[in-house]
Structure formats: structure tokens, C-alpha cells
Design a protein that fits this description.
With 397 residues, the chain is an all-alpha fold. The protein has two domains: 90 residues, no CATH class; 288 residues, no CATH class. The protein contains 13 helices and two strands, in the order E-E-H-H-H-H-H-H-H-H-H-H-H-H-H. A two-stranded antiparallel sheet has the order 1-2. Helix 2 runs antiparallel to helix 11 and helix 3 packs across helix 4. It is globular and about 55 Å long. The protein starts with a strand and ends with a helix. One of its GO terms (molecular function) is organophosphate ester transmembrane transporter activity.
């Protein structure tokens, strides 16, 4: 470890060659290397708190036989070694993280996020086609994620968050909005194609701007408002030309957009100053949403409908239906967990771009896997809406 002593501006030493008579007429000033400018390279001298004593004194000079008679004779003499400032430590700057490693890490996050989301949507649609009970399906997704995190905390795989009553109070409105948005999106996908649901959900920025403008009084730059035109126009074009249009599915996606906007607003307001990681934050959010959703799911659908539908699905699909249910529940939690973890590592702008690309991957993959019929004008509407979402993310930042 290198430790350097701070040099005082006056740390300069001169002395004179005097003639035998002690006259200072033939002074010749010779600069000596000040001790305060010497760097200590020994590992034993790792501390910067080095106390330096003066290099010389009047009495010591007289002992050198320089013929100095009195202190007046050395009025020109300056001895400038001073005590180092012991109040400051020398801190070596940390080595910056290589840019290539950071880009690779972000790329892994995005690839994992998109892949998990695509797999979830595929299995979720398979389950809903055979078992059209979106309230129970939504409940199982939250229950599975909550169980996974409780096991992780109990086995010390993940560190449990330190929370208090204020944390859970601030989390409650976020959980309410998250529950509504989750159920509404699942209801939508039970009625229409996955691609159509995600095309409508790409219009979430429009809801965000409108809610922030008219309910919160926030204003935005003109480019932000202009970016809403292709978003709204593209979603409208895609909805009008959708071959499998269903009003419940359409309204479910719209309600999901509105709910997630309020979730983001409540989250920003309530989580200021809270030091909970993205992974644990989503785990707590899932647990509270599960408590909120369970009684409503029982009231809307009920155990009797669930049992009858379960038997029908098993008879039609076979034992692999159980795997579908388990997969959609596990992958729902994993993709949301990775998205929240990504927020800890990347900027909001990068996250918005990643979210836009995620919707493209889900739409394209669902069309290919489920052979969803799509018209060219419908595809054009989807492309315009997604382009508008991308422009919004750029203008917003």
C-alpha cells in the first residue's frame, strides 16, 4: 500500500555556505529535498497519520560548526518540515468496474427477464384455455412465489428483509393496485389472445401521463405528449382489427394498465427511504397481495367451481396439466423477481427500453406458438403502439 504525506506549501529548506569568519555575505542557497515530499513505499507504513518533526533547529545548526553566532544571524534561515495533517486519511479510489462486465451483466438480466416472461405467458395461456378460472390462477401465482421466498428466507438462501409496521403500511396501497392489475391481466388473457393483451398493455404510458396530469397535476414536456399519439393510435388500430376481439378481454387489459400506473405512483410515494432490495420488496408485495386476493377469489369463483373445473382439465389434458399450473405459477414469480432485481442495477430509462422489448418478444412468440391469426393492418397497429412506447421512454427521460 502506498501512503503519501501531504506537503505543506512552506516546506522548503535552505542553508548557506558561510566563510570561516561567520559572514553571511557569500550566501549560497542550496535547496534540499523536503521530507514532506517523500513518498513512503514500505508496507509497514500503511497509515497516512505520520507525525513529522522539524528537520532542524537553531541549536543543532550551531553544533554543526557553521559559525552561527546568534538567532539574528539566521533570520534568513527557514526550516519548513511540518506535522502532517492527521485529520485526513489517504483513501485510494476503488477501481472502476469494467464496462464490458457491466454490459454483460445487464444483458444477462434482460435475456433472463424476457425468457421467463415468455415462458410464463405460454403456460399461463395453456392453463387458462383448459381451466378458465383466472381468479384462482392469479391466486396460485402469488401463493407459489410467497412460498418460494419463505423457504429461501428460512434456509438462509436469501437474506430476510428488515421491515417494520410503517413498511407494511406503505406497502398496502401498492399491493392493492398490484392485485387488481394482476387479476385484470389474467382475466384478459383468459378471453383473448396473449398478443392482443400485450398490445393493449403497451398503452400503459398513456395512462401514466393522463393520471399524473389530471389527478396529480404534473406537467410533461411536449415530446412526451406527442409520443402518446402513436401509442393510442396503434392500440386503437390493433383493437379494431383484432379477429378475436372480446370486450371483457379488452377491458381487463385496460384496467390492468390503470392499476399498474397507480401501483407505480404508490410505490414511489410510500417506499422513499426504505432500504429493501428489489427481490425482497417483490416478495413482500406478493405476500400482501395474496392476503388481499384470496377472499375475493373464493367469493367470485369458489371451491366448488374450482374442483369441477380441475377434474375436467385433468380428463382432457392429463397429468401434464398439473405441470402447466406449477410452471405458470413459478415462472410468474421468477420473471417479476428478475425485473425488480434489474431495477437495482440499471437506470429507469434502460428498464423502460427493456420492458418495451419484452412486450415484442412476448407478442411474437405467442403468435408463433399459438398460431394466432393476425392481419397485416393488425400487425401495423401493434408496431405503431410499441414504437410509441419506445419514443415515450426516450422523451420521458
Amino acid at each position: 500500500m502506498f501512503s503519501a504525506v501531504k506537503q505543506h506549501p512552506a516546506a522548503v529548506l535552505f542553508f548557506a555556505d558561510l566563510d570561516p569568519s561567520g559572514s553571511a555575505s557569500a550566501r549560497r542557497r542550496i535547496p534540499l529535498t523536503p521530507l514532506a515530499s517523500v513518498k513512503v513505499n514500505s508496507p509497514l507504513c500503511s497509515s497516512s497519520r505520520l507525525s513529522l518533526k522539524p528537520l532542524c533547529s537553531f541549536s543543532s545548526l550551531r553544533g554543526l560548526g557553521l559559525g552561527l553566532g546568534s538567532r539574528d544571524d539566521v533570520s534568513w534561515f527557514r526550516c519548513g518540515a511540518y506535522e502532517a495533517d492527521s485529520s485526513e486519511d489517504v483513501v485510494l479510489p476503488a477501481e472502476p468496474k469494467p464496462a464490458a462486465a457491466q454490459k454483460l451483466k445487464i444483458g444477462i438480466y434482460f435475456a433472463t427477464w424476457w425468457a421467463l416472461n415468455v415462458v410464463f405467458n405460454i403456460y399461463n395461456k395453456k392453463v387458462l384455455n383448459a381451466y378458465p378460472y383466472p381468479w384462482l390462477t392469479s391466486t396460485l401465482s402469488l401463493a407459489c412465489g410467497s412460498l418460494m421466498m419463505l423457504i429461501s428466507w428460512a434456509t438462509r438462501i436469501a437474506e430476510a428483509p428488515k421491515t417494520d409496521l410503517d413498511f407494511w403500511k406503505s406497502l398496502f396501497p401498492v399491493a392493492v393496485a398490484h392485485t387488481i392489475g394482476h387479476v385484470a391481466a389474467t382475466v384478459s388473457m383468459s378471453k383473448v389472445a396473449v398478443s392482443f393483451t400485450h398490445i393493449i398493455k403497451s398503452g400503459e404510458p398513456a395512462f401514466s401521463v393522463l393520471v399524473s396530469r389530471f389527478l396529480l397535476g404534473e406537467t410533461f414536456p411536449v415530446p412526451v405528449y406527442l409520443s402518446l399519439i402513436p401509442i393510442i393510435g396503434g392500440c386503437a388500430l390493433a383493437a379494431v382489427t383484432e379477429l378475436n376481439f372480446n370486450m371483457i378481454g379488452f377491458m381487463g387489459a385496460m384496467i390492468s394498465n390503470l392499476a399498474f400506473v397507480f401501483r407505480n405512483i404508490f410505490s414511489k410515494r410510500g417506499m422513499k427511504g426504505k432500504s429493501v432490495s428489489g427481490m425482497n420488496y417483490y416478495a413482500c408485495l406478493s405476500m400482501m397481495s395474496l392476503l388481499i386476493l384470496t377472499p375475493f377469489a373464493i367469493a367470485v369463483e369458489g371451491p366448488q367451481m374450482w374442483a369441477a373445473g380441475w377434474q375436467t382439465a385433468l380428463s382432457q389434458i392429463g397429468p401434464q396439466f398439473i405441470w402447466w399450473v406449477a410452471a405458470q405459477s413459478v415462472f410468474y414469480h421468477l420473471y417479476n423477481q428478475v425485473s425488480y432485481m434489474s431495477l437495482d442495477e440499471i437506470s429507469p430509462l434502460t428498464f423502460s427500453v427493456g420492458n418495451t422489448m419484452k412486450r415484442i418478444s412476448v407478442i411474437v412468440s405467442s403468435i408463433i406458438i399459438f398460431h394466432t391469426p393476425i392481419q397485416p393492418i393488425n400487425a401495423l397497429g401493434a408496431a405503431i403502439a410499441i414504437l410509441g412506447t419506445f419514443l415515450y421512454s426516450q422523451a420521458k427521460q
